Every structure is written in C-alpha cells, then in structure tokens.
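Training component of the fellowship. As part of building independent skills, the fellow (R.M.) carried out the full modelling exercise for a liganded target. The chosen ligand was nicotinamide-adenine-dinucleotide. The inputs are recorded below so that the supervisory panel can assess the work.
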Amino acid sequence: MLSIDLKGKRALVAGVADDGGYGFAIAKALAEAGATVCAGTWPPALNIFLNLLERGKIDAARRMPDDSLLQFEKIYPLDAVFDTLAEAPEDIRGNKRYKDVGDFSIAGLAQRLVQDFGARPLDIVVHSLANGPEVKKPLLETTRAGYLAAVSASAYSLVSLVARLGPLTRPGGSFLSLTYMASERVVPGYGGGMSSAKAALESDTRTLAFEAGRKYGLRVNTISAGPLASRAASAIGKIAQMVEYYAANAPLTEPLTAREVGTTAAFLASPLGSGITGTTIYVDKGYHAMGAAVDAGLGARAPS
Ligand SMILES: NC(=O)c1ccc[n+]([C@@H]2O[C@H](COP(=O)([O-])OP(=O)(O)OC[C@H]3O[C@@H](n4cnc5c(N)ncnc54)[C@H](O)[C@@H]3O)[C@@H](O)[C@H]2O)c1
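Fellow's submitted model of the complex:
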C-alpha cells in the first residue's frame, strides 16, 4: 500500500504559537506520518504557547489517531526578521519577551539545532509565518517602512532559512512555505505590502529550488492556501467574509480545513513528492481557477 511515511525524519515548523493556524496542522500531519517535529515560535507568542501546552488547553487539537498527544521535540524561540542576534536592536534584545530566551535569530536557531541533534539534524523545514504591520492599509497608503517590514518578515525570512538550514538538511530534504493568491490577483484588504511579499515568496521559491537543489539536493515548494480564520488572518479583519466568499464561489463549497493543507504538506515533504520542486501548489478548494463570482449574473449554476 502506498502511504506517506516520514518515520526517522525530523521536521522544523517555523510559525507555530497555537492550534489555530496552518503551522500547527502541518506539524500534526507530519507527526501522524511518523516525523518528529520541532517548532520555531515568535518570542512575543512563546510564553502564551508554552502555557497553552502546559495547561492542556489545546490537548483536543493535539490528540493523535493513536490517542497520544502531539509532542514537539523542541520549541525554539525564533524571530525570523533577524539573521543574527547582532542585527537585533537593543530595544528588542532588552524587551521582556526576548531577553531571557537566548539567541532567537535564524543563525541562532541553526546553531541550537546542531548543538541539540548534530551536524545534519533536519529533513523537513516548514515556513508558516508572515507579518505585515500595515496589512490593513491599502498599498497606496503603505509606508516604505511598512512595506519593507512585510517583505522582510514574510519573504526574506524564507531565503534566510534556506541559506542557514539548507546545509543542515539530510539528503532528500524538503522546504515548504505558505503563500496566498493575493500575490497574483487583486484581493482588496490584503494590504501593507503583504501581496508584494507573497509575490516575492513565490518567485523566490522557484529561484531557491534551483539554487538549493543544485547546492544541497533539496526541494523548495509553496502551498497557496485558501482563507482560514487563524490568529494571523483574524488580525487582517474580514476573514469570516473571505471564508464565506470562497465557500460560495469555489468549485468545492465545503470550507477549507487546516488539515487539508497539513496533509498536502506531509505528501510534499515525503519521498512521494520527490519529483516536485519550485512549485506553487493550490490548496484552496479550487478557488484559484475561477474567473467570475458564481452570483455575478452570468448564468453560472452547478451542472445537473
Ligand atoms: N490564514 C489564511 O487565511 C492564510 C491563507 C494563505 C496563506 N496563509 C499563510 O499561512 C502562514 C501561516 O499563517 P496562519 O494564517 O496559519 O496564522 P498563524 O497565526 O497560525 O501563523 C503565523 C505565525 O507567524 C508568527 N510570526 C509572525 N512574525 C514572526 C517573526 N518575525 N518571526 C517568527 N514568527 C513570526 C506568529 O507568531 C504566528 O505563529 C502565513 O505565511 C500566512 O500568510 C494564511
């Protein structure tokens, strides 16, 4: 029987801080396929996440098919806008959420992984993080600083992760990120340079697939996911309407689940996906294929 088998593989999922987002669902699917999973968590959200875990608040979501609870082998502090600790400004390093967690940069993460598990500790790296401080502003009103911050946190962070963790991956390694269709079509409300950041992320996925494919033999893909009411998406606002809009207009009308993104990620990371790299894969119930809204008065109706 053909099955997704990740036994003996170690994954790092960067961008998990609760049970509501794509990162968590991906971590769970990878673990269900047999991988051990480490998390990278943004320092401002780290204590909240550790508390959720400790107090059993997300045990229901952590429940695995064999009745055990999803375990994170390690949870590392990670602020993906810093490549090295020296680049972090004093006010961040001295901030109460940062000062006691150690080196939270991408280089620091790489160093800790090697310290904890040896020179080639990884098989799978998932980038499931984004941040755009001005996301609620239309692009026309976005400041240069806001735009660059969005691109730094949401796109360059992948470049830096591949550069620093690529050398740490074992043969057959796989990198995966999450993108959104606002990179290629206009989605009013997805502002602050976030649409630009996702366009960069998708373009970089192709270039990184080539460069890191040749250099390390690893694969780089991105999943273009439909809307999900995660913590990050709720900050954008109007996410409930987006979910409804997709359900009304996509080829498949059941709302997308995070698990559907998780299982696609597990497949892509597995040897079954060994021929796939440099690709944007849509997991959005087919919405990306549509050219007009169902109720646009063009006579569209389900075929009988
Ligand atoms: N939710 C959606 O509708 C949707 C749709 C398509 C793509 N995506 C993408 O999926 C990915 C995961 O987002 P999500 O919606 O599941 O929300 P989420 O809140 O679960 O994940 C976002 C994570 O990014 C972390 N983060 C923010 N800035 C960071 C930084 N500087 N360094 C490290 N971590 C940082 C947050 O702490 C959070 O854990 C993002 O790339 C997002 O753009 C989301």
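The panel noted the following from the submitted structure. The pocket of nicotinamide-adenine-dinucleotide is lined by residues 15-17, 20-23, 42, 45, 78-81, 128-131, 153, 178-180, 225, 227-228, 230-233 (CB under 6 Å). The chain has a mean pLDDT of 96.
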